[in-house]
Design a protein that fits this description.
Distance between the termini: 38 Å
Radius of gyration: 13 Å
Shape: globular
Order of helices and strands: EEEEEEEEEE
Helix content: under 10%
Strand content: over 45%
Number of helices: 0
């Protein structure tokens, strides 16, 4: 069973915004801290932001002040609101537990370009 499905990516201009969604299934979601990860061509996958089981967010430096992570445990969904997007945000964005113990989904492509 596919457990994580990312959506909401697209092509935006620098300074634009996107809202990504991560739909989880399998009943594990509400009991796990979750994170958004991204991988750009030629680069390693990196953590962007994480959120505790009860909704306390943490951000890595590139996301601070621009991105907001949130979750809805009742719906089994996590979100990443991305504002003031930069070309260096271009990547495939993935969601997973912070321990990365679920299969990776296909991700959703975010492209920031003029």
């Amino acid at each position: 069973q596919v457990q994580l499905v990312e959506s909401g990516g697209g092509l935006v201009q620098p300074g634009g915004s996107l809202r990504l969604s991560c739909a989880a299934s399998g009943s594990f979601f509400s009991s796990r801290a979750m994170g958004w990860y991204r991988q750009a061509p030629g680069k390693q996958r990196e953590l962007v932001a994480s959120i505790s089981r009860l909704g306390t967010p943490k951000y890595e430096e590139p996301a601070k002040g621009r991105f907001t992570i949130s979750r809805d445990n009742a719906r089994g969904t996590m979100y990443l609101q991305m504002n003031s997007l930069k070309p260096e945000d271009t990547a495939v964005y993935y969601c997973n537990t912070v321990t990365q113990d679920r299969a990776w989904g296909q991700g959703t492509q975010v492209t920031v370009s003029s």
